[in-house]
Design goal:
- With about 80 residues, this protein is mainly α.
- It is about 80% helix and about 0% strand.
- Helix 1 packs antiparallel against helix 2.
- The chain is rod-shaped.
Length: about 80
């Protein structure tokens, strides 16, 4: 994101909100599917380096959730 939220036009801000929301949902869906697959792999083969991948991706997902909350605050402040 090159611009600050306060510098975006209303249309850009709403489009960015929609994009980030889709990314957040896809990331959590991916993490959930990955967690199930890693659990199955763990049961069949034991521990592998892939076992930590879902946990390692959580900070990135949480950062996107934080960004989405900032976008929602800006949308609310503008009254959109």
């Amino acid at each position: 994101m090159a611009k600050k939220l306060s510098e975006m036009s209303n249309e850009e801000l709403l489009k960015w909100q929609k994009t980030v929301k889709a990314i957040v949902y896809m990331m959590f869906g991916f993490i959930a599917v990955l967690a199930v697959l890693v659990t199955i792999l763990f049961v069949k083969q034991g521990f592998s380096p892939l076992s930590i991948l879902p946990v390692a991706m959580l900070p990135v997902a949480m950062l996107n959730v934080y960004n989405l909350s900032n976008i929602k605050k800006e949308v609310t402040a503008r009254g959109l």
